[in-house]
Amino acid sequence: MDRLHELGRLAQKAGPYLLLELVLPGGTLFALLLYLHQSGRLRFLGGARRFAGDFGRRIGNDLERTSLAWESRPAWPVTMNH
Question: What's the rounded mean pLDDT across residues 20-28?
Answer without folding.
Answer: 80
